[in-house]
Request: fold
Amino acid sequence: MPAFVGSALAPLIGVLGDTGRRRLVMVAGGAAFAVSVALTSAAAGLWMLIAALVLGNPASGAFVSLSQATLMDLAPAHRERNMARWTLVGSFGYVGGPLLLAAALWLGAGWRAALAVLAVAVALAAVASGCRLPASPSATDMSRAWHHTFAVLRRREVLRWLALLEAADLLLDIFHGYLALYFVDVANTNAGVAALAVAVWTGAGLIGDWALLWLLRRVSGRRYLRASAVAALAAYPAFLLVPGYVGKLALAALLGLLNSGWYAIPKAGLYESLPGRSGAAVAVGGVAGFVGAAVPLALGIAAGAFGLAPTMWALLLAPVVLLVLVPRR
Reply:
């Protein structure tokens, strides 16, 4: 539900981002995101939690996605490296979030206190963004911005990068979401080993995102994408087929290294295909997000019908699509 609501509102957020209202939308999104985190911390039941997440998904789109778009506007010639830096910061969040939660539990404060602290941090960031954001790069009126957004959905290059982003996500967020369940239900390990698998994968991803900054000084991002996709075509089936959890942990670490850049480089390509219209990139990303939001549901239905082990093979589509669609120039 949160993903579908966020995707439905993303076109409006992106269009507003290409008008003179970007700063206002970002500050309002940051404030709403802080409220969402605070409500999550105070959630007393399922529906209050869902309401908080439904508010938070589009709010993070307004705050975070438009922040990313602004970063892409600041240095158009360095989009790939700046997106790699952006992803590296996100990897620190992937690793640091569980550590923050563990610290809160160790101190006896609980997960609600950890989220309350984060709500305050988001609120401070929203206030700071209103003071430090540059002016909107364009002042397009709403009608022209809407027309341009829907027009770019007919462009082949835009559709290519959107397809790459959604395909790559199979071995990014979707793989992350099923990893612990796979180790418990298919590899027949306990919850501790499953948690270790997630930690190994996210830790390797952090190292890979750091190494990507070094690699992009020496090879083009698109060449790296093709090479890493070839390696993943061998590593992912090996991960599924190798017996024992030790081999699977090692291959999970390798996959965490190989998929570094699978979000940053295609996303930089999407912004590059829409010069001067970074808000439109956010908008069309939301349209594609409807497909992305349906994929975990479809995989869950398939796993319920056929089992998780055969369903995990569907994620092999990620490197296949990268090899087919990544442009050579």
